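Archive transcription. Copying these from loose printouts into the bound notebook so they stop getting lost. Printout 1 of 2:
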Amino acid sequence: MLGDLQRIVDAVAQRVGRAALIEDSHQLVIAYSSHAEPMDEVRRESILSRHTTPEVIGWFRAHGVHRVRGPMRTPAAPELGLLPRVCLPIVHRDLLLGFLWFIDADGTMSDQDIRAAAEAAAEASRLLHRAGLLGDLASQREAEAARALLSDVAESREQAAKELLEDGLVVNDGPVVALAVQPVGDAAFDEPARAAVEHALVLTRRWYGDRSALHLMRRDHGLLLISGDARGKKPPAVARHLTDSLHTARRRLPGVARTVIGLGEAYPRLADAAGSYHEAVRSARVAARLPDLGEVASWSSLGVYRAVSLLDESGLDPRAVHPGLLRLLRTDGGQVLVETLETYLDLAGNAHATAERLQLHRTTLYYRLQRVEQLAGTNLKDGTERLCLHLALKMARLTAGAADRPAPEAS
């Protein structure tokens, strides 16, 4: 199909005497003719990256290019680096399949040229329609298989992996790693945010290798599964590429919520993807609530929060781990005592290091720790008590302000 579309775009460009470009309905570049000036920044970036940027897509949508079913002219947008254009929607029975574009900086594209372009758009629509029927079926099979990979039923996971490999949708049976993209804060995962996240997932998937990755949008997060070692692109590098794509989307769509990425461990086979997926989702949810962890949190680096995230999902109250924590928090000045205690426990009970970290005199530190023992009803010389208090503190930190967060989505 691509060869036929390239033939169409080259022929119409020669016929009307100006460069032509075909995009699909999502404004991903499919084919383009050779270009000479005038070429604006939007066209240049579209050709280099093979896609149109989110803010330009939004601008075109605002001007109605997704609604019209005949040729239309679009004005210049200097703030976007966009020259005037002639747009011919590529449609089949009122179904929008893509766009045929011409830059018309001086408005000299004639009606005769536009009629010739409309004939080329009609020819392209027949090709895209046939390809779309096959592509839609493949996409549907892929999405269904990807969801089945995350099933709690082992037989479903095995069958999904088998189908993906046999259909050639994924070419490597592992190792498989999951990356989860989670919005931060109380903002809903609304349509602009979902579109921005999926755009970033698609760009990173293509960068990694289409047949070595899958992506899936879930109710409150996005997912990327990578399988195999695509030319040495390791999971941290994939996470960086995805982070950069998300940053670009946020710069161009200021209303989109900040996101974090959770990175699961590598599992040996595609059918084991659910294990990495659950780790990635938990890592992302921890990172969304603990900013100190940064934008990318890997399951392997979470330390105690691996266990804490599992306890949090069970609905366990930190007070059940150590009831003395609540008494500490309810006391005047209790927050200072809690911070002192947490630092002391983080530093393995090393009083000298704790005093230095908090810039306290050793006598002040000992007084605070004594007050902690009195108020919490504990003995900090008891290793079991220290363990319970430490775990309760980490749970309280993770759950603080998270009472209204959405329930985790079932896989």
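Printout 2 of 2:
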Amino acid sequence: MRTPLVIGNWKMHGTIVEARALAGAIRDGLKRPRGVQVVVCPPFTALALVSEVLSGSPIQLGAQTCHHEPAGAHTGEVSIPMLAEIGCRWTLVGHSERRKEIGESDELINLKLRALLTQGFTPVLCVGETAEERRQGLTFTTVEGQLRAGLAGLGGDQIAKTVLAYEPIWAIGTGVNASPAQAAEVQGYLRGLLSELASKEIAQTVRILYGGSVKAENAEVLLAEPEVDGALVGGASLNAQSFIGIVRKAARIGTATKE
């Protein structure tokens, strides 16, 4: 049984004061989440503070990216051991904004994913197509290429420790989410690829999240799809009540599925 997972990606938002308030409100609103796992990914500047605020709570801490080397002359970068030291155990990898704005390649994403697994982290590999690629009928081709490149060289046991996030680029920050059927179709395709890359048994254990304009208003219908194992939430995670609402809907679905 795949426990629903909800991750809040705060992106480049929040001063220290704002991060403290947001993390505290989420912590207080989700004291004992049942049937769901929750992770928040603040900006680097707020990670240590948010780690303190969440200490003792079931909400876990993630980073938005990392460098694949443990140390070195990499100005402006943050290593995995640095993240581990302040309580991170999750990291997003290959988010479309990193691919587009920073120019991260599939090869670099693969290096990061390998390094994270070696350090005992859970990487969340993001894949997704642009609006033009969808118009051209290239959705499956795009996400397959990203998945195969991201997981290149990994064994089944390593793939089993990875989370996937399908984020159609045309839905990120636009307010236009993929329909439940669109999300389920692509995520089912990704699970089929995992069966090929690892095994059917492992593919059934890997969680595949949906991301892209997820809000409290649309979360329930998206999360009700059997292939959608949770949500990677952007803008809505910056509002505590909105994020808590999404988590609670995921929890209800997760608990009902288990029962």
